[in-house]
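Dear colleagues,

I hope this message finds you well. In preparation for our joint manuscript, I am sending the DUF5946 family protein (Nonomuraea spiralis) sequence together with its predicted structure, so that both groups work from identical material. I would be grateful if you could confirm receipt.
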Amino acid sequence: MADNPGAVRCECGAAAGPLGVCVDYYHAILSEEQADPVMYRWHAPVVCAYLLQHPYRGHEKYLDGQFRQLQLLLDKGLDALLRAAAHQIARNRHGSRAGYDMEPLAAYEPLPPGGPPRDFRATFSGLPVRDGSFVADGHAAYGQHIEAVVRATVESWLSMES
Ligand SMILES: [Zn+2]
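The corresponding structure tokens are as follows:
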């Protein structure tokens, strides 16, 4: 059965898709969004969701902030997340005290200990790709697919608390 691609599983528990496991999808997204500014608006949620579904590939000290960013997105939308990020960049440029500004994120749940969760309802390797593109059905559809992955990521982590 080792030569059956359907049997291949990602470290996050997801079944491989036509492009491979999640890291293959992640790299394909990072490559495609470089040439597509509208698609690139979803860059931060893509990175945060990927690292929270595959936390051994990220830096543990950033995971809590990334988890809160995803909650901000679900709560207030992409524009609010982009505004918070722009505020952060401006703040760093003005040389204010070092460190991540947690204020816009302080209201959200901290990352529960004991992760990662065993599986997620929506995964990167489950994202639809048509003609080699993630936005073949339009940017609105792409945004909805990423948001579903984000929602599944937050839900699985929060369900670890009990
Ligand atoms: Zn995965």
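For the figure legend, we might mention the following. Residues 20-158 form one domain. The chain has one domain: 20-158.

With kind regards,
E.M.
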